Amino acid sequence: MLKSLKNYFLNAPVRRKLMVMLVLVALSASLVLSLVFSLTNYNSEQKTLARELMLLGQIIAKRTAPTMEFVKTGSANAVLKNLEDLAEKPSVILACVYFDSGELLAKYTPDEVKGDCPEFSELPFNYGYDFKDSRLYTYQSIIAAGQLEKPLGSLYMVSDLREMREHMRDIALETLGLLFFVIIGVYIFARRIQGIISNPIMKLTEIVEKVKKEKNYNLRAEKSYNDEIGTLTEGFNGMMAEVEERDINLEDQVRQRTAELENAISIKSDFLSNMSHEIRTPVHQINVYARFMNEDWEEASEEERKGWRRRVFDASGRLENLIHSLLDMSKLGRGGATLSLSKESIRDMVNSTIEGMSYDLTKHHVAVEINDLAEGLEVECDRTRILQILTNLFANGVRYGNGSTLIATIKKDTIYCKRRGEVPALHFSLADKGIGIPEKELEDIFELNFQSSRTRTGAGGTGIGLSIIRDLIKLHGGKVWAENNPGGGSTFHFIIPLESDYGKANAE
């Protein structure tokens, strides 16, 4: 039968041969491109699914860590409540939480799936994920903030990859549909070029075969005449130019996406490594004054007791707000924070901040001088947020001020608001005579995870605190900036309206 088909083809008219050849070449090229596209899409989908599941696991681990840290037993219900969020991810068919001792704390499975958690000894000790037996397995430690060396437990999850299979099925159907229309289009095109002569066809065929073998889309067919073959040649050359341009654009897009992914991974890594540093100050304050309340309560006066309670309250508020802000940043959800407004004395908040940092100020022999040029000035603000801003500014002054006296200035100023125009505002500044900031970095230091070249080694900057300050000041409708002092050191300024436009209109 094959011999008969071969003889039929050899004896068929040139027009029919050309039609068959064009269909075969176009189909082959489409299949190759479809295969490459499918493989690329499959690998990309695997990585995307793994990243999503690992990120989901990190969120659950963070939410589970406090429960495991403070309630060693009987906490299964609280942990299971966290795991129930996995119901929004249908592909997750099993999730298990273990104590660091290996004891199973909680297990989650969808209603339609039955499965048991493996023994803790059967789990890998390394953090990461693995594709095996048409499933995705993820393993990660549950770690309390500030205790990176001693995990509280482990989180193990299994996905049946149903989302990826559905996606690849859709891709396969779309590819088959595309191939069908390609074949139809090529057949119609071949039918319209009957009456051509053999030599131009053979030349064009040679070029097609060469492109097919070498995948060199720089090749172009030579146009012999201004007839149908000439038109076909021009069309072929145009198609090659489009494919070549598309390949170039695709390579650029791949490089761009790769760079974006690497940057995102770097930001996430820096974020996680810097969290413990940013929460250390309020945690330390709570610990110190809680120890005073525990050990010296009976001997202390009522005024001292009130002072301790107030400092613990302020520090815990700042800590809670900082944690919420960091979680918002980790989800790249800037703008999600809210304000609880009240009339507050800026001098009282500055004094409270200095009292809360008295230990660090004394330890580093740093004095504070307050220039209150607007005595009794009150501002409509979120007290907890402003205390967080002031604490971060004073902490930077202590850390990078080289032991110099910190000069805090309070004065009245104005700021332009879209809704009301020029309005009265609070202008606060904090100056030091420390290491200063390179001029070209005065704006960049407020970007997330940016570390000044003068604090990247030795001084220990994290690149998170100033970013939080910038976002909170913007939320109050104000602005923040830094400048270098003529005699050395730097000054940080912020201005916010005395009457907030929060919830009414955005200030510039």
Detailed description of the structure:
This protein has a five-stranded antiparallel sheet. Helix 2 (14-70) runs parallel beside helix 5 (198-214). The chain has 508 residues and is of the alpha+beta class. The chain has eleven helices and twelve strands. Residues 457-461 have low confidence and may be disordered. The protein starts with a helix and ends in an 11-residue tail after the last strand. The longest helix is centred in the middle third of the chain and has 68 residues, at 228-295.
Summary keywords:
single chain; about 500 residues; alpha+beta; 5-stranded antiparallel sheet; 5-stranded mixed sheet; 12 strands; elongated
Low-confidence stretches: 457-461
**How are the strands ordered across the major sheet?**
2-1-5-4-3
Biggest sheet details: 5 strands, antiparallel
Tally of individual helices: 11
The CA-CA distance between the termini, in Å, is: 81 Å
Helix/strand/pairing category: alpha+beta
What best-fitting shape do the alpha-carbon axes yield? elongated
Q: Would you count the extended β strands for me?
A: 12
Task: Indicate the proportion of strand residues.
Answer: 15-25%
Radius of gyration using CA atoms only: 34 Å
What's the order of the H and E elements?
Answer: HHHEEEEEHHHHEHHEEHEEHEE
Nearest-integer average pLDDT: 80
Share in helix? 40-55%
